[in-house]
Every structure is written in C-alpha cells, then in structure tokens.
Amino acid sequence: MAFKSFEDIKVWQEARELNILLQEFYGRYAIKKDSDWEDQISRAVLSIMSNIAEGNDAQSDMEFAKFLGYAKRSAAEVRSQIYFAFDRKYISEEEFNELKSRAIRIARQLASLISYLQSSKRKRRSIIKKT
Fold first, then answer.
1. 3-class SS at 3?
2. What is the helix (H) or strand (E) element at residue 42, kind and residue range?
3. DSSP letters of 54-100?
4. Per-residue pLDDT for the chain (131 aa), expressed as one digit of tens each?
5. In the 8-state DSSP scheme, what is residue 28?
6. How many CB atoms lie within 10 A of CB 34?
7. Separation between Cα atoms, residue 75 and residue 47, nearest integer Å
8. Phi and psi at residue 91, in whole multiples of 5°?
9. CA–CA separation, 75 vs 102, rounded Å?
10. What distance in Å separates the CA atoms of residue 86 and residue 124, rounded to the nearest whole number?
11. d(Cα 83, Cα 46) in Å, to the nearest integer?
C-alpha cells in the first residue's frame, strides 16, 4: 500500500480533524487553568498525526505498521484524556460522546491499516515518485 503523501491517508485526516475540534475547547476557563491537561492531550493527538506521517515514509510495511502502532497507542491516550476532561466537567456529555467516538474510530482505522500491512506479503513498500 502506498500513498503519495501522508495527507492522503484517511486516518491522518481524521486525527487532524480531532486536533482542530479539541482546539475549540482550549479557551474555556477551566481548561485554561489546567494547562498541563491541555498540553497532554494536544501532544497526544499531535502524536497520532506525526506517527502516521513518519510511518508513511518508512521503508517497509512492517516499519509503517510499527509507527501506526505508536499512533494507535496515542489514540488510546487521547481517549483517556477525554474521560479526564469529562470527569473534571471541562466538557459536556454530548461533547464527551463525540470526542470519544472520534478517538475510537481513529483507533479502529489504525488497527485495520496495521492488520493490512502485517498481512502484506511484500517486503518493501511501493514508492510513488512525484513527477
């Protein structure tokens, strides 16, 4: 499986959307007072995006799958941080459900892509050269 760029990868696009959505909450008074939480969740969601991008430049499907595994673990961290935000009443139940749903969807997409890459018989990734 090859992509011209990481921006073409649907799960990277979804992680970017989650990052943008989370930024809408950072201006809230309670969250502004908890800059540690804001920093933690923003780094975790950025880690999803970054590991997908970095993995896309890998030399093999197995190496790409390894980076996607890191991204999947970051998606779990984001989901945990969403629970923390809900428990602290930083977000409403409706917002919690939307954010959690997005994090779960991202994790499932990553798991599917990892599974595909691990079952691939190819040793080296196809590289699409830009013309």
1. coil
2. helix 35-56
3. HHHT-SSHHHHHHHHHHHHHHHHHHHHHHHHHHHTTSS-HHHHHHHH
4. 567 889 999 999 999 999 999 999 999 999 999 999 999 999 999 999 999 999 999 888 999 999 999 999 999 999 999 999 999 999 999 999 999 999 999 999 999 999 999 887 555 445 443 43
5. S
6. 15
7. 9
8. -135, 155
9. 9
10. 43
11. 18
**DSSP single-letter state for residue 27:** T
Structure tokens at 29: 């008074």
Rounded Cα distance, 93 and 66, in Å = 34
Domains of the chain and any CATH numbers: 6-119 (1.20.1440.60)
Which two three-digit tokens encode residue 98?
């939307």
First to last CA, the chain: 19
Rounded distance between C-alpha atoms, residue 70 and residue 92, angstroms? 29
How far is it, in rounded angstroms, from Cα 112 to Cα 90?
Answer: 32
Per-residue pLDDT reduced to its tens digit, 70-104: 999 999 999 999 999 999 999 999 999 999 999 99
CB atoms within 10 A of CB 104: 13
